Amino acid sequence: MDEPLDPAFGMAELHEPRLPLFTLAEAHQLLDVLQHFGTVDHDWGAQARHFAPELAARVPSHDA
Q: What is the Rg, in whole angstroms, of the alpha carbon atoms belonging to the chain?
């Protein structure tokens, strides 16, 4: 059974190599996802609430 944390779960086949770091756009998309899941009262929500500000502190703003 596929699990959400399994790297093969829901991942489209890549046609080019992955970059070693997220692009700025990818980092902001991930931040949006973390902020969304941080509103959920669940263990995953607690983890998202922890990592969202950590990521936000390391990623330049959209305006920068």
A: 14
How confident is the chain (64 residues) per 10-residue block, as mean pLDDT?
54 75 93 94 93 94 76
- The whole-number pLDDT of residue 29 equals 95
Q: How far is the C-alpha of 48 from the C-alpha of 27, rounded, in Å? A: 14
* Matching residue, tokens 């756009």: 25
Q: What whole-number distance in Å separates Cα of residue 61 and Cα of residue 31?
A: 11
DSSP codes of every residue in 1-64: ---TTSTTTTPPPPSSPPPSS--HHHHHHHHHHHHHHTTSSSHHHHHHHHHHHHHHHHS--TT-
CA dihedral (29, 33, 34, 39) positive or negative: positive
pLDDT, position 38: 94
